[in-house]
Amino acid sequence: MKRRKRSPSGAVSRRDFLRGAGAAVSAVSGGLLVAEPSGATPAPGSAGVVGPGEVPVTLRINGKEHRLKIEPRVTLLDALRNRLDLTGAKKVCDRATCGACTVIIDGHPVYSCTTLAIDVEGQHITTIEGLAPEDQLHPVMAAFVEHDAQQCGFCTPGFVMACKAFLDKYPNPTLEDVKQGLSGNLCRCGTYAGIRQVALRAKA
What is the CATH classification number for the domain harbouring 65? Predict the structure, then answer.
C-alpha cells in the first residue's frame, strides 16, 4: 500500500483544491451567488451596459428619425434591411470585406454589416435611398449608367456610396487617387475600369 505524499508546508494539495472548488459550486447552486436577470437595469457605475433584450434606439436616416426596439447586437445593416425596409445596402460578405453594405455616417463611408445600430444613434446616416429622394439620379448614379459600370448589381450601391463620400472629400481626384480611394470595395464582375471612370466623370 502506497503512502500519500504530504504537501509542502503552506502549499495547496490537489485534494484541497478540489474540495474548495466543490464548495464554490455548492454556493452557486445554493443561491448564494445570484446573477442579474436577463434585461436587468445595470448597477450604478457599470459603464451603461444594456441588453441583452431589446432596447429603444433612434436612428437618423436620410434626414428622418426612426424609432426602433432592437437588441444591442443588431447591426446597422440588419436594422436597415429587416426593420426599415431600406434594402439598398446589400448583405454579401457580412464581414467588412466587400463593401456592398457601405453607407455614409457623418460624411464617412462605413461598412454597415459590422457597425452596431446602437453605436450610431444620433449620427447622420445616409443610405443610397437618400441620394435621390425626388426620383432624380444623383450625378454618381448617372455616371454609373453612362459608363456601364455595373453588371450583377450587388456591389453597385456600396460603390455609389463610396464614390459619393470619396468625391465629397476629394472633389478633383486623379485616376491613382480613385484607385486608392475606392480600394475598400470589391466588384466580383470586375467592372473596375468603368467604376473608376465614374468617379472621374462625376467629379464635374
Answer: 3.10.20.30
